[in-house]
Amino acid sequence: MSSGQIGLWLIGAKGGVATTVMTGLAAMARGLAPPIGLVTETEALRPLDLIGCDAIVVGGHDIRPGSVVEAAQRMWTESRAIPPELLTAVTADLEAIDARLRPGSVLAAGDAIGALADASILARRETPRQMIERIRDDICRFASDNDLKRVVVVNLASTEPPWTAPIPADYATVAAQLYQPAAASPLPTSSLYAIAAFEADAAYINFTPSTGATPPALDALARERGLPHAGCDGKTGETLLKSVLAPMFAARNLDVMSWVGHNIFGNLDGRILDDPANKAAKVQSKDHLLAALLPTPPQTLVSIEYIESLGDWKTAWDHIHFRGFLGTPMTMQFTWQGCDSILAAPLVIDLVRLVDRARQAGECGQLPWLASFFKSPLGCTEQAFAAQVGLLQTWIATQTISR
Amino acid sequence: MSSGQIGLWLIGAKGGVATTVMTGLAAMARGLAPPIGLVTETEALRPLDLIGCDAIVVGGHDIRPGSVVEAAQRMWTESRAIPPELLTAVTADLEAIDARLRPGSVLAAGDAIGALADASILARRETPRQMIERIRDDICRFASDNDLKRVVVVNLASTEPPWTAPIPADYATVAAQLYQPAAASPLPTSSLYAIAAFEADAAYINFTPSTGATPPALDALARERGLPHAGCDGKTGETLLKSVLAPMFAARNLDVMSWVGHNIFGNLDGRILDDPANKAAKVQSKDHLLAALLPTPPQTLVSIEYIESLGDWKTAWDHIHFRGFLGTPMTMQFTWQGCDSILAAPLVIDLVRLVDRARQAGECGQLPWLASFFKSPLGCTEQAFAAQVGLLQTWIATQTISR
Amino acid sequence: MSSGQIGLWLIGAKGGVATTVMTGLAAMARGLAPPIGLVTETEALRPLDLIGCDAIVVGGHDIRPGSVVEAAQRMWTESRAIPPELLTAVTADLEAIDARLRPGSVLAAGDAIGALADASILARRETPRQMIERIRDDICRFASDNDLKRVVVVNLASTEPPWTAPIPADYATVAAQLYQPAAASPLPTSSLYAIAAFEADAAYINFTPSTGATPPALDALARERGLPHAGCDGKTGETLLKSVLAPMFAARNLDVMSWVGHNIFGNLDGRILDDPANKAAKVQSKDHLLAALLPTPPQTLVSIEYIESLGDWKTAWDHIHFRGFLGTPMTMQFTWQGCDSILAAPLVIDLVRLVDRARQAGECGQLPWLASFFKSPLGCTEQAFAAQVGLLQTWIATQTISR
Amino acid sequence: MSSGQIGLWLIGAKGGVATTVMTGLAAMARGLAPPIGLVTETEALRPLDLIGCDAIVVGGHDIRPGSVVEAAQRMWTESRAIPPELLTAVTADLEAIDARLRPGSVLAAGDAIGALADASILARRETPRQMIERIRDDICRFASDNDLKRVVVVNLASTEPPWTAPIPADYATVAAQLYQPAAASPLPTSSLYAIAAFEADAAYINFTPSTGATPPALDALARERGLPHAGCDGKTGETLLKSVLAPMFAARNLDVMSWVGHNIFGNLDGRILDDPANKAAKVQSKDHLLAALLPTPPQTLVSIEYIESLGDWKTAWDHIHFRGFLGTPMTMQFTWQGCDSILAAPLVIDLVRLVDRARQAGECGQLPWLASFFKSPLGCTEQAFAAQVGLLQTWIATQTISR
Asked: Percent helix, strand, coil in chain A (nearest 5)?
C-alpha cells in the first residue's frame, strides 16, 4: 500500500523511549535486530500492509542539552539494556537524527520539567501562539527537507502535572486565548504541541498521561483538519498486567479486596515523577482502571518511586488480596522486572504505523480501536486487555475486507 | 426454568474439593455464605435461569474410611481454610450426606490410589462390568430415593497414572472387553465410573486429569444416550494464570524463552501426586497449554511437590523469562497462594448447573463452550482464558435469544 | 529463683499486641498453647531461671471504648490469626483483665491518636503532673490489689508523632515543667507514662518508636530509683530481616546500591501510621539501621501503608539491588507475610521476664544487651542481629556464672 | 609479608567461575575493576597483609575443547554478566593463560562429565597413578616455568556423582590401589587431582561438592606434606541465605515447618546437574545444613533445574513456612537473582589468598576457620554464617597478634 517515506517527530527526543525508538529503527534497518516486541509484526497484523519500519525518518524536539548519541548510550552504561555493540553500530544513524532535532519549549510545563531545560530554552519568551507556530514550522520544515509523505508526531516528553484549569469546550475560544502571555496559557505544553502537530498536518499520538490532544476542543481541531490522534499513556508493564489479570478475577467472581502496586525505577522519567505534582498524573492513570474492571472496586494503592540504581528497569511488586468461596482470603503477588524504554519503544513504532494507516484509510479524530496500547484510551471505556485486542482485530478485519 | 431437585453425585466424596462443595452448598442454603467464586452467580450468567444451589442434593462414592464430617473439618484443622463456626453450622447437613455415600472402587486405579483404600474396598473382586453395574445401581437408587429430576456425576477422585494401553475407538468393542477380569480392564477406573454414570442416565463431568469420558468410545456412548459431558481437569490456579498471561505475551510479540512453574501443597491430592506415575498425568495437563498459546514454544518446567505443612494451600511460583525489543531479556515472576479446594469447589457447582442446563437444552456429548473451566478442555483447542470466556458468553447468548 | 507473682502493666491494653499477650499468657497457663516464638523458652535461656509465664498478672491503661475480649476477637474475625476456639477458652481470663483496666491519657499524644479516644478521655483536663500521679496511682493500686512482688510497665500504645521540642537534659528541670498546663507539656504522653512507671517503682519497656524513657533525663530518673528500662520499638519483621541480611552483604563485600522496603497492613496501628506525622517516627526507626550496617549507605526507601483487608498481617516486600564482582548488578527480593501481633506478643513476654530478671540482679538504667529485641536499641549501637544475640548470650553467661 | 608471585592452578579452567576468576584478576590488575565482592578486601582483613591480586599467575587443566577467551566471552553473549568492553580489554591476558592450560582427565568422573570431554581426553588410557603423575608434572612445570613461590590448586570442575565405594582410611592402602586400572580406581577424579596437587607441593581448595581431599586418607597426606587444604562447595547464593536466615528463626524460637528451595539456571554446571547422579551430590550439599541450624528439622526440598535462557543467572525461590506464637502459620519467601560465576569468582580469589597465607603461617590439613566460604566446611560443624564469620575474625586476631 505504502511507498515513499513518512516522518516520525518525537516530542522529548532525547529521552530513553525516544532514543530506543531511534536505535531500534536503525538496528532493524541494518538487519541487526529482529522485530521482537512489535505488535505490528505479528501474524495477525500482516494483512494491513503497513509502512515498513525502514521507511520511517525520525526527528524531534527536546529541551535538554546533550546529544541523542549520549542519551542512547545511557541505555547501556546506566541500565545494561541495549548492548554496546548495537549502539556502536547505529551511531551514524543517531548522529543524523541529532542534526534534525530542534529546541522544544517548557512553556506551561511546570517546575520539575523546567528544571531539566537548557538555559537557552528557559530564556525564550513566547506566547502560546508564538510557540505553536515555531513548533509547527519545525515540523513542516522536517517534512519538506526529507520529502516525507506524511508525519506522525508522538509525545514522549516527561509527564506534566495535572492541568486543573478549565479548558473551553470549543476550539475557537481556546484559539483566541493562545495570544495571551505564557503565564495565562489556556493549555499545558503538551496540548500546545498537539495543536502545532495538527497545524503542520501531522497525526498525533500521546504516549504520556499529559493532557495532549485529550480536550474535546483539540479533538474537534483534529477532526476539522481530517487528522487522527490517539492516546493516552502507553501501557507497558504493571498497568498492562492489571488489565490482563483483573478481568480474570471478575470472570471467576473472586472478590478483590485490595490491589497494591509499588513501582521503582531510576530513569529520568522517574526523577520527574519524584515531584508530587507530576506523580499525581501518573498514579491516576495507573490506578483508575481497576475500578472499571472489577465489579466491586477494591482498595487500591499505587506508588512510583525513583531508585537511581535501577536505571531504566521498572520493577513493580503487586499484591492482590482477594476472597474466594466461603470468604476465604487468598493472595497473588507478582514482580515485573521490565526495561521501560525497551517495552515502550516498539509500541511507539506500532502506533506510528497504525495511526498512519488509519489516516490513509481516511479516519480522523480519536481511534478507540487502539485502546490496547494505552492506560487511558481515548474514545473507549473498555479496559480489559483481551477485549481491547479484540477491538484491534475487528478493525483489521474491516480494513482487509474492504480491499 | 427449573423446579424440583437435581442430584450431584461425587466420585471421591471424602476429598477436600468434594467436602468443600458440600459445605458450601449447605452454608449457602442456610444463608451463611455469599456466593463468592461462583461464575454462575455473576451478572453475565443471570439470564440462564439456572437451577438454584439449594436445589442440589449431594451423594457419592469414596474408597476411604472416615466420615465426610471429619474430612470437612480438616479444612480447618490442617488448612485454616474454612472457619470452624461454619463447619459446625453445617454438621447436620454433612451427616445427611454421609448417610448417602456408597463404597467406591479401585479397580485399575493404580498402586498409589489403592494404598488409600479401605480394606473392604480392596477385598472386592469384580469384573469391570460388575463394578459398573454396582456403581450404576448406587446412582439410580440415589435418584429414586431422593426423587431427583436429573443427576450429574462429577469425578473428583485422586489423579490416576496416565493410561497407556490403547482404547478401542468404538464403544461396542470396549463394552465386550468389560466382561474380562479386572487385570484385563480395557479402561481405567475413572472411565468405568463414566460408563456407570451414563448407564444411570446421568451427565458426567471430569474435574481431574484422569481418563474419564475422554476416549471417543465413551463420547459416543454419551451421545447415544443423549447425555452431555465435560472435562478435563479443573483450571483453578497456576494453570489459570498461564492461560491468562501467555496470550498477553503473544499479543505483545514478546518472546517467552522459558516458563518455570513450581507448585507446592500438602493435601491428599498432593500425597497422591508425590507418586511419579500419578504426577506425570498432572504435569502434562498443566504444561501443554503454553505451546498452544505462544508462537514459539518456550522451555517449560512444571513441578508439583508435597509439602505437608501447607495443607490445602497450593502455593505456586512461576518464573517467566522473555525477550523484548532489541533482544533485551526481562522477567516476570508471580506467586499464587490459593486454597485449592476453595478455588475448585465453586467451579464444580458452576459446572453442575451449566451441564444440567445444557442437558435441559438438549445438548449431548462434549460441551466445548465450557473450556474456560478446564486445563484440557474436551472438544476445544482454544487455551486462552479470555477467548474461552467468550465461548461461554456466546453460548449464553444463543440460549437466551432462543427463549 | 522466683516465687510469687509479678505484674505486667500495658499502656495500650486494648491493642492487638496487648490482647495477644493476654490471650497467649492465658492459653499457655491453661496448657492450650506451646511457647513457640518465646526466646525465653529456648535452651540457651534456660539457665536464667526466669519467672514463669503463669506468674504474670496483667492490667493496663487504654484510651478507647470497648473491651479486651472484643479486641482479642478481632484477631480472629479481622485477621484469622488466633483460632476462635482458643479465644473462647480464655474469655474468662480476658474478662478478669478487663476489670483491671484503667482509663489512659492522650495528653500531648497528637491528633491521630486523640481521634481514637473515648469522649471521657478527651474530656479530662490535667496537667502533666496530675496525669502522672493518676497513672502512678493506678499502677500502685494494681500492685497492691494483686499482691505483686514487682511490676513491669510496657508501652504498646500507638506510635506518637516525633517530638521535636528540646527536652532538658536534667530531670529536675523537666520535673518543674510538669506543673505547666497540658499544652506546654515538656514531654510527649509516652514519656509521662514512663515517669509514672518509675514513680510507681516499676521497670519500663518501650516497645514502640515513641519517645518513652529515651531522653537522658528519664534515664537519670530510672537510675536514681534503681529501675531498669529498655527500648525502643520491637523488632519483629521486616526490620529484623534487615538486621540479619545486611551484615551478610557487608561480610561478602557486596555493594548494596539500594534497599527498598514496602510494608502494608491493616490493623489499628496501620490506621494511625497513615497519618504522616505518626508515620515519620516509624519509618525513621525502620530505616536508619542500614546505614549503620553497610560500609557504603545505600539509597533507601521505606513505606508503610494501611490496607484494611490485611488486618494484622504485615506484608513486606523488600527489593535489594547490589553490585558484585566486576560491577555486575544483582537482586534479592523477599516477601514477609507475618502477623504483627503474633510476632510481637512473645517478645513482649520475653522482655518482661528478662527486664524483671535484670532488676532482681540489681541492674538499672538502660539494658543494652536486649538490643536484639529492638529496632532502635537504647545504649547500644550494634545493629547486626547475630551480634546482638551474642550480647544477650554474654549477659546470660555473666548471670549464670555468678550463681 | 609477601613478595614474588604465586600460582593459581584451576581444575576446570574453561568453566564460568574459572574464566571469571581470570577475567577479574586481569581486570583488577589493569585498574579496570574495583575489588567488589572480595572478602579479602574488606577492612577487617587488611591486617593480614595478603598477597596482592596482581601477584597471582593462573594456569590450569580442562577436558573440553575451545579457548578460555571463548569461554569468557560467553559470560557476555549468553549471560550479559561481564561487559564486553571489559572482556576485550583483557583478551591478551586470557590468551596468555590459554597457553598455560594442559589437558585434564575424566578418569572415574562419571558419564555426564565424560560426555563433555574432547576426544583426545577420552582416548587416554591411564591408571590412576599415571594420571596423578601427569597432572603433578603439569603443576610442577607451571611453577618452575613461571618462577612461582607457591601454588594453590582449586577444583572448579563439574560436580561428580556421589562416590559410593568405601575409601580406605589410611593413605598407604589408597596409594597401593592407585596402580590398578582406571575402572578399579579407589577414588574419583577430583581426589586424584588433590593427590597430584599435594605431590606437586601445592595447597588445595575444593570449591565443589565432589570428593576432592575430603577423605581422611587424603587429609593425612596433606598433613604429612605440611600442606593446608579447604572445602567443600563454595557458598554463594541460596545456601548462603539459608545459613544467614535459619539462625534467625532459631534465635526467635519460630518453628520452621518446611523450607523449599527451587533453583534454576542455565550454565554448563546446570547441564551437568541435570544428570540425576550429579545432581544428588549438589542437592545434598545444599540441603543438609537446615537440620543443623534449626532445633526441629523441617521438611525440606531442594531442586536444581537447567533452564537454558538464564545462562549464568542462578535464580532461586525459597518458601519458608513457619509457626509463631499460638501456632499461627506465617510465610517468608525470597527470590535471589545472582550471577553464579560473578558470586563465586571473588570467593575463589579470597580462598587462594587465605589458604596461601595459612601455609605461610605454617598451618596444614583442614582449615576450619574458612567455614563461612563453604556449604560443607571441612573440620567444622558450625553452619551459621555469622558464627562462621566469627571463626575467621578470631583467626585473623591470632595472626595479627602474633606478629
From this structure: 50, 20, 35
CB atoms within 10 A of CB A323: 18
pLDDT for residue D123: 82
Instruction: Return all residues near B394 (Cβ < 8 A) that are at least 6 apart.
Output: B369
One-letter identity of residue A20: T
- In chain C, the domains with their CATH numbers are 6-234+342-398 (3.40.50.720), 238-338 (3.30.360.10)
Cα–Cα–Cα angle for C215, C221, C224, nearest 5°?
140
Q: Cα–Cα distances in Å, from A387 out to A158, A392, B251, D213?
A: 29, 9, 12, 63
B-C C-beta contacts closer than 8 Å: 9
Q: Can you give the pTM of this predicted structure?
A: 0.95
Nearest to B377 by CA among B237, B244, B232, B236: B232
State which residue of chain D sits closest to C294, comparing Cα positions: D42
| Contact call for residues A365 and A219 (beta carbons, < 8 A) | yes
Tell me the C-alpha distance between C200 and C151, whole Å.
Answer: 9
| DSSP H helix total and E strand total for chain D | 16, 11
Residue of A nearest to B28 (CA): A326
Query: Taking CB atoms and an 8 Å limit, are A83 and D83 in contact across chains?
Result: no
Q: A335, B333 in Cβ contact below 8 A?
A: yes
Residue of D381, D352, D377 whose CA lies nearest to D366? D377
- Average pLDDT on B267-293 reads 76
Predicted confidence band at A1 (pLDDT cuts at 50, 70, 90)? very low
Residue C68 has pLDDT above 60, yes or no: yes
Cell of A318: 503487586
Is the sign of the CA dihedral A86, A88, A94, A96 positive or negative? Answer: negative
**Rounded to an integer, what distance in angstroms lies between the CA atom of residue B238 and that of residue B285?**
12
Mean pLDDT of chain A: 93
Alpha-carbon span B263 to B269, nearest angstrom: 12
Asked if residue C337 lies in contact with residue D334, where contact means CB atoms within 8 angstroms, the answer is no
Q: Is the pLDDT of residue C271 over 80?
A: no
Written as nine digits, the cell of C243 is 538486621
**What is the distance between the alpha carbons of residues A108 and A100, in angstroms, rounded to a whole number?**
25
Q: For residue D252, which of C40, C382, C23, C50 has the smallest C-alpha distance?
A: C40
Question: Burial, C402: exposed, middle or buried (Cβ in 10 Å; 0-12, 13-18, 19+)?
Answer: exposed
Tell me: cis bond preceding A232? Omega within 30 of 0 counts: yes
Q: How far apart, in whole angstroms, are the C-alpha atoms of residue D275 and residue D293?
A: 29
Rounded to an integer, what is the distance from CA B220 to the centroid of its chain?
21
Min Cα separation C240/chain D (Å):
9
Measured CA to CA, the distance from residue D278 to residue D269 in angstroms comes to 10
Phi-psi region of A320 (alpha: psi -120 to 50; beta: other; left: phi over 0): beta
Q: Which of A272, A36, B321 is nearest to D309 (CA)?
A: B321
Residue C402: pLDDT band by 50, 70, 90 thresholds? low
Residues of A in contact with D335 (CB under 8 A): 335
Cα B328 to Cα B331: distance, rounded to the nearest angstrom: 10
Torsion angle, CA of B374/B379/B381/B385, rounded to 10 degrees? -30
Cell of D119: 576426544
pLDDT over 70, % of chain B: 97
Reported as a pLDDT band with limits 50, 70 and 90, residue A402 is low
Q: Do D84 and A84 touch (CB under 8 A)?
A: yes
From the list B308, B333, B337, the residue facing D299 with the nearest CB is B308
Q: Write out pLDDT tens, residues C328-381.
A: 999 999 999 999 999 999 999 999 999 999 999 999 999 999 999 999 999 999
Average pLDDT over chain B, rounded to an integer: 93
**Is the pLDDT score of A327 beyond 60?**
yes
